[in-house]
Design goal:
alpha/beta, globular, 45% helix
Length: 237
């Protein structure tokens, strides 16, 4: 089983979904923020005060590579909201495994953060109130989330529903790999070339889509149609 990375803004539910997905897959679950803070022995605010945001981002990138190296046989890894800011992190995650982007509208993210007492431990990125900050940060990072992720999950759905969608998609990939159906149209001499993920066979049997391919999606902040469930646990990023 490959590595699975979850990306998205603070409070989109990466930790909650990550734990559920890891349980379903019988894989370890790691939160890069939690790993970072355990290794540093300090809070985010303390790290930022001593080293600035560049210092924290460096530690964030180091944590991503460390937890990946610890679990070469596979794991579900929830990343911090700013992990995608570094281009090398984006490339690394795409090359190492499957990347899911969990999206939710600004209103839902702001509501979750407002009700999260741990949110005070992370310094403000903009100095604005929480709703304006969420809107601004999401606007800036949305293209990066889309550029990083292979697939998109609607984080406004119930957590177990989201987990089932991710499982359906991963199972469909496993089934495709097992079948390895050759494409009847891509012939090279006497041999038939297999369908590729980049250019799927037009005659291949369709499977039920469990996640929306981010590369074909019209990116827009707050595009989720269903309201977030107030009981969903926000990420502490």
């Amino acid at each position: 089983m490959p590595l699975i990375f979850l990306v998205g803004p603070r409070a989109c539910g990466k930790t909650t979904i990550g734990r559920l997905l890891a349980q379903r897959l019988a894989l370890p679950f790691i939160d890069t923020d939690h790993y970072l803070l355990e290794q540093a022995g300090r809070t985010v605010a303390e790290i930022v005060e001593a080293e600035g945001w560049p210092g924290f981002r460096k530690r964030e990138s180091d944590a991503l590579r460390a937890v990946t190296a610890i679990h070469p046989q596979g794991a579900v890894i929830a990343t911090g909201g700013g992990m995608v800011l570094d281009e090398q992190n984006r490339i690394f995650m795409r090359e190492q495994g499957h990347v899911f982007y969990l999206s939710a509208p600004v209103e839902a993210l702001a509501a979750r953060l407002s009700g999260n007492p741990l949110a005070e431990q992370r310094p403000s990125l903009t100095g604005a109130d929480i709703r304006d900050e969420v809107r601004q940060v999401l606007h800036e990072r949305l293209p990066l989330y889309h550029a990083t992720a292979h697939h998109h999950l609607d984080a406004s759905l119930p957590p177990r529903h989201i987990t089932s969608l991710a499982m359906d998609f991963l199972n469909s990939l496993s089934a495709q790999d097992a079948e390895a159906v050759p494409c009847p149209e891509a012939k090279t001499g006497r041999e038939v070339a297999p369908c590729s993920e980049a250019a799927p066979c037009r005659k291949a049997a369709p499977h039920r889509a469990a996640a929306v391919n981010v590369e074909n999606e019209d990116a827009a902040a707050g595009s989720a149609r269903q309201p977030a469930r107030p009981g969903a646990a926000p990420d502490c990023e």
